[in-house]
């Protein structure tokens, strides 16, 4: 059986055309090298070298075998390089699901940096609700989900990577818009625009619970799946909404945002992935997302000090 070491031995002799020099190059003694070359010739059934006391020359078969040996080793080197790049997450495909509001946070920056660092990874982006992402993860239609709530789902790992506060979105012409800060208790008679419970039950329940703690259950005037749609309906005067603070980056005329006086539990964006997914591309993206958000958090702390 021909092994890779036989090719290395053969190439050394073919390039040196001298068994002693080839042996020195390979850091072995000459007799074993000569024995390996004879064994290779026996395996192939052809002579690769013409040997005399004065010189060593390649036969015509040897010349062809040398060319092909170079090709085999080059192909092996390429296979090793590709395998190593895949192992580092530098090559492959990565399907990412995300809620629409994530695009007003650091997600675009994370995607940009990931594309720069891993240009050979094919990114497939899917805008999905939290519930749709859960199903897509289970069915391996996406590899990573970026969701709006701390879901608890068998088989999935979930981690908050970007906490943020909640704010109130009001029509610019609303009577309460003159106030710089609002209490939830003043909103009992207001019409609310909410995210549907079936699409994001955890986030929906968070809003309901906040209002109930303030002494009322919100009057739901309209539901909308997309956060920008919710903000658009607020601009149209159809109601008010409690939204993640990052929505303030969605510059929509006719809407103003106000902080709430109460101690509001933070919401945030969460990374979700299959617990036993060993994909290097998944690990690379998770690591970059964590690093980027930690860096932003440190900058915020510096600005605040």
Structure described in brief:
The protein has 305 residues and is of the alpha/beta class.
Proportion in β-strands: 15-25%
**CATH classification class of the largest domain:** Alpha Beta
Give the count of helical stretches: 9
CATH architecture of the largest domain: 3-Layer(aba) Sandwich
How many strands, which pairing sense, and closed or not: the largest β-sheet? 5 strands, mixed
CATH topology of the largest domain: D-Maltodextrin-Binding Protein, domain 2
Provide the domain count. Answer: 3
Which spans have pLDDT < 50 for at least 5 consecutive residues? 297-305
**Roughly what percent helix?**
40-55%
Describe the global form: rod-shaped
Q: Strands across the major sheet, in which order?
A: 4-3-5-12-6
Number of strands: 12
The CATH superfamily name of the largest domain is: Periplasmic binding protein-like II
- Rounded to the nearest angstrom, the distance between the terminal CA atoms is 70 Å
